[in-house]
Amino acid sequence: MADALRPFDRVSVGFPGVVEDHVVKTAPNLHRAWKDFPLGRMIHKATAKPVHVLNDAGIQGYAVIEGRGVELVLTLGTGFGFALYLDGQYVPNLEVGEHPFRGRKTYEDLVGGKALDDVGKAKWNRRVEKVLTQIQPIWNPRKIYIGGGNAKHLKIRLPRNVTCVPNLAGLLGGIVLWGGPRPRVRRTSGHRVPRPAT
Fold first, then answer.
1. Which of 40, 44, 88, 169 is the most buried (most CB within 10 A)?
2. Model confidence pLDDT, tens digit, residues 40-62
3. Region 66-85: what's the mean pLDDT?
4. What domains does the chain contain, in order, with CATH numbers?
5. Burial status of residue 185 (CB atoms within 10 A of its CB: 0-12, 13-18, 19 or more)
6. For 124, what's the count of Cα atoms within 13 Å in the CB-facing half-sphere?
7. Paired residues of 12 in beta bridges
8. Among 52, 15, 14, which residue's Cα sits nearest to residue 34?
9. Element at 174 (helix H, strand E)
10. Would you give the end-to-end CA distance of the chain in angstroms?
11. Are the C-beta atoms of 83 and 57 separated by less than 8 Å?
12. Is 82 in contact with 95 (CB distance < 8 Å)?
């Protein structure tokens, strides 16, 4: 894949789990063989380029946050991604998706991709609404940005401080990770999520 993308000067990798010093520590939705995998070193060896590896929601956030106060990025995809920023600084390794939300169920169990498939879009939307209601008084964020592949299925009234962002933000965040300029990402704010373009 890297060969098909050449020429390039550096590599940014968003990984769905906890990453410390470019080493994967957890991979809740992937095989256990990913635990303690030196992903950054392996990609550097394969590409001979400098590499940054970070949690995928963390990278997406770099493209969309404003850099003021407490901001959250939630990604709705295979799992439930979460990133926290304080005055533009990323706080790593918070796997809120694995936190119990209702009984023995986690946020990920209730609003991850499998839950969407199992319960359907209407019930899944109600669950996402409950997750937003639960998260607001715990983190008291100034802004929440929702991304991920399943955000396109949202049909709920969003609180005023919640914005939907496109998946392109994940790629653009990889540029910011290297000190690049913050891009202008089209955001959908207000109460209602628009229908995706066909």
1. 169
2. 999 999 999 999 999 999 999 99
3. 96
4. 2-56 (3.30.420.40), 65-176 (3.30.420.40)
5. middle
6. 22
7. 52
8. 15
9. helix 168-176
10. 28
11. yes
12. yes
Task: Say if residue 189's pLDDT is above 70.
Answer: no
User: What pairing do the DSSP bridges indicate for beta strands 143-147 and 70-76?
Assistant: parallel
Do residues 194 and 163 lie in contact, with contact meaning Cβ atoms separated by under 8 Å? no
Residue 16 and residue 87: Cα distance in Å, rounded? 23
Average pLDDT over residues 77-92: 95
Nearest partner of 125 among 93, 158, 103, 101, judged by Cα: 158
Query: How many whole angstroms separate alpha carbon 98 and alpha carbon 15?
Result: 16
Q: In whole angstroms, what is the distance from residue 109 CA to residue 79 CA?
A: 8
Q: Which residues fall within 8 angstroms of residue 150, CB to CB, at 6 or more apart? A: 76, 77, 113, 116
Residue among 143, 178, 135, 147 nearest 160 (CA) = 143
